[in-house]
Amino acid sequence: MPSMSGPSPESLDQRLAAIARHPFRAKFHLRGRDRATAELSGPSTLRWHAYDLIAKRLAPAEPHKDGKQTPYRGHPVFVAQHATATCCRTCLQRWHEIPKGRELSRAERAYVVDVICRWIEREVAGAQIRPGP
Fold it and tell me: Which InterPro entries does the UniProt record give (predicted)?
């Protein structure tokens, strides 16, 4: 659920649909252990993890190893970051128009977390319809 002042689920869905048309982004889905973690943890725990990971790995003006700081697996938030183009500052600038070279504001951090959590929410809901891993 987005924050009260954040984007609506509909506007997030429109942004996610546009990003998902890119072949690289479209191949990401929650599978196996990452999917199980998302289903078992629940939305509030995942939101907390997303805030923490974004604060450490994406929010600084010059993130450590920018462009290579987000693993492809190991946590649902990591998979979501690649699927939503919130994995590094270059992708954040290209796809979300959030400039590089400065620390993310509180509102920008909240937006990134909203995007990630909306993608995970849609994946978990779709996983209940979609067969197998």
Answer: DUF4186
